[in-house]
Structure formats: C-alpha cells, structure tokens
C-alpha cells in the first residue's frame, strides 16, 4: 500500500470492520455488508485552540460539534491507520500539530490527549503519513524550522525523527501521490521529493505557475493535484504530470488550509476545503470547473478551521 493507507482518513478502520479487504473476510469476520455509516468529521480549530468532533452525517450541513478536545494552537492533523496498529489497538490514532512545538497524540476514546511528540517539532503546519521501511511513518512540515521531519516506528512509538529534509521555505502543506512521492507546499511553490527520503533529498520537481502562497495539497484517483492557495484565495488544479494549472476555483474560498484527499472523505468525488479566514468548511463536487460552487458550506461553531479529517470515534 502507498501513502493513501493513512493520509487523513479512516479507510483502514472501515476495512477492518468489514473483513480487512473490500468484500473479503478477516479474522472470522463475515464479508462486508456495508456501506458503513459515515465517520465523524474532525476539525482542527486554530482559533478555538481545540479539535472539534462533529456528528455522523452525509454532508457538512450538521449541528454543532458533539465534543471537543483541548489542543492549543491546533493547526494540522492526520490519522494513522496502518493495519497492524488498528488490529492491535482496535483503533487508528489521531495526530494533531499544535503551535508552537508539539504534535499531540489522541487515542481512543478520542476525548483527550494521550501523549505528545516534541523532538524536532517547530510550528507543525502540516502532517501526513506513509509507509517507510515496511512500517508507517509520520511526516511533519515544520514551518518554523524550514524542514520536514520523518518519524519511523510502529504504533505510538513516533518519538525522535529518523530523517530531516531541510532547505525548505516555510513548508505549509504535505501530500503523497499514488507513486509514494512526497509533495510539499512552501512559501511560493510546490516541490516534489522521490523516495527513498534522506537528509540529502532534494526536489525533483518545482511548480510555481498559478501559485502565490500555497498551503494544502491533495490528489484524486486520476492523479490530479489540488493546491489550496491562501495567497490567492483559490483552489488550483494541475493535471497529472503538468506544471500548468487547468482550473482555478475562487468561489467561497477564504484563506484555505489543509485539503482532504477527494477519495478519503464522507462522500467520494468531493473535495473538502477548510477556510481559516472564512471560519467554515466548503465541500465541492468533482470535477471542478472555474465556475464551481460549493455543495455545502459548513460553519457551525467553527473558529479558524485549518485542517479536517474523518474518523469513527464510536469504536
């Protein structure tokens, strides 16, 4: 599996509950008779210094959050859902980047912080996860240190960075494509790193066309790259292998933060955009066009939402 196993979604948990593989069986569990109910929406609320958990729903048009978790300076999050961890602990683990120098670890029952990571952390603007050396690794974009730190290990043992990729310029977004390449949004462009990742890794691709101050990045199953550009209050779409954008969307976009991969949300073929300055999350149907309007604008109780994930908090 590539990075899509773990980037800001609870796919593995759903597969485990349904027999590990779509339509398959695992550990005596009968074939999946899903669809499973939608997971809860988890939002990093930088302005409220908390993580807000919203109820299960098929859209963003939801009531206020059902619970919150204190998280000072919450600005990024990801869910680690490697199968080994899920089968051992029975749950995926939520990681929350907190300004100025902490990544909080939130485990079941998703009501409090279970631990923290501080070594190598400096303004953790974005988090992501991928498989490295046969186990899942946590990637942290440190805006304050101009680097990306990589934490390897199993389960909850992300403590000390194994690799640090330096020489960046205020990194603000992370994502992996289908080939396992790491993409980093920084001050004025987006750069690509190819594995294996080492301290001497350097960008193999740099994209600046159509960008002013990029933040979040996401990929869909067709290889299209979506970049949230907070400098232009837009979402910029790049076809696979292209350095030139094909579509730019500006409607209802205001200070966009971390994007959620379109195939990892409540509904497939939709893009979720947290708007830090707009105090809301917009949901767009794909494919995007220059005149795309959001399906839903969710704003109930939101205060500078900077990142969003989906997780089943009932398990």
Detailed description of the structure:
A hairpin with a 4-residue loop joins strand 17 (225-229) and strand 18. The protein has 315 residues and is mainly beta. Helices cover 4% and strands 38% of the residues. Mean pLDDT is 83; it is low at 1-34. It starts with 10 loop residues before the first helix and ends with a strand. A 4-stranded antiparallel sheet has the order 3-2-1-23, with no helix packed on it. A 4-stranded antiparallel sheet has the order 4-5-6-7, with no helix packed on it. The protein has one domain (3-311): YVTN repeat-like/Quinoprotein amine dehydrogenase (Methylamine Dehydrogenase, Chain H, 7 Propeller). The longest helix is centred in the first third of the chain and has 7 residues, at 11-17.
Q: Which key features would you list for this structure?
A:
315 residues; mainly beta; Methylamine Dehydrogenase, Chain H; four-stranded antiparallel sheet; 2 helices; 4% helix; globular; disordered N terminus
